[in-house]
Predict the 3D structure of the following.
Amino acid sequence: MTDSIFSQRGSKAELEGGRVLQPKFDENGLIAAVVTEADSGELLMVGYMNAEALKRTIDSGEAWYWSRSRQEYWKKGGTSGQVQKIVEIRTDCDQDAIWLKVKVEGNGATCHVGYHSCFYRRIEKTEDGEVVLAAPDQAPVYDPKDVYGKS
Amino acid sequence: MTDSIFSQRGSKAELEGGRVLQPKFDENGLIAAVVTEADSGELLMVGYMNAEALKRTIDSGEAWYWSRSRQEYWKKGGTSGQVQKIVEIRTDCDQDAIWLKVKVEGNGATCHVGYHSCFYRRIEKTEDGEVVLAAPDQAPVYDPKDVYGKS
């Protein structure tokens, strides 16, 4: 799926080596956006954008997403103040993923649970071979109740 | 969508704070996997896994994906030797994304175009406000013809 906001998909050579942004949106019109902290390089979150959200992000210099669960545009930090100021945007070889390097405003955290990054848990195997989630290995940096008014 | 290989999705509290891996697969049965180089932290690629690919990755310690374009299981490096040895696997707050920290075998590159990372291009605006892709800012590290037998 493409969208009239961006160019239609070209040949493999154009996608991989051309100068034209031709993002590939999936059958729901979405593309994955990987978000890292520009200074530290830490992986903060993965979000999804439709063409309009990608356009808003490029134009405004602040990250916009499409919320799959709420089915609405979502400016990150609109409620929490954790606005993602864009430092750099990249795409990959076949232009089906976006990478945002950002500086986070507000309290500097990203995760609504209270952690700096949404990826606060390892997947690990116990001695018995059971696959489990480890306890969070980041300390919470804020109390979501203070930001969202509920836990 | 869930899959019988992993536990069914639980409550918000269980997903965010529990010990049970309950990955969320989309309506195509896929979950996004962000891949970074363990040593450098560099973002290498984004792939997609179905439940079986995630299980194979956890069990084997090497990254498996589901190829959306070819509709088949894909062990990264099966042809190129660029096998991704798993150093750590993480998931995010709502368990709808996977993060692999890997060590890449073979020539150490990831991208089939010849670059170390698939994200070899910035998205930028020209002085006229046109959105374009910058020229690659990584040097190619290998010639795909030598690995895949074709460009």
